[in-house]
Hints:
It holds the Pfam family PadR. By secondary structure, the chain is mainly α.
Amino acid sequence: MATTDQTQMAVLGGLSIAPMTGYALREQIRDALGHFWAESFGQIYPALTALERDGLIQRQAALRAGSSTFAITPRGTERLRELLAEAPVMPKPRNGVLLRLFFGRQVGEEACRQLVQDTRARAETELAEMRHIRDELQADTGPDAPYILLTVLAGEHAARASLTWADEALGVLDSLTPQHSPAPAPAIVKDHP
């Protein structure tokens, strides 16, 4: 499946839940799918243009100037189902933390420890966010709620797995002997994925 097909699937999927503007769609993807999927404005707006041109979505009357709302058409729903039936693309992961840890001897034990601690803190935050979303879903009786819950459960499990890994990784770092660590290296800049 091509990248553009995956973007179209995310856009059509979002619009299958409710009509919305391009901006609202981007926010919905970020907020609802952000723990496993991302789309930029630079991907969403060209997809909206192509989907509208192909009759898969339609522009509705703007509620305010410069802000069009889009709704999925019956043909768009059919296309969404076709895209969803295709085998998912599983890209190779790119994890900047693991890349740095793999070459950790070059930066030293303390820099590696900080990377793991930062990863652990992010996982705790993600787990709390997933639990909050799950609590909100308990009150949602909409037809999409059980399916959304499946993705939230995956997010919870991934966060718990990261916590378990971080605790084990810190144990490994604690067991290092001085010969495994080089002289102190420059600090690693935080906020790398």
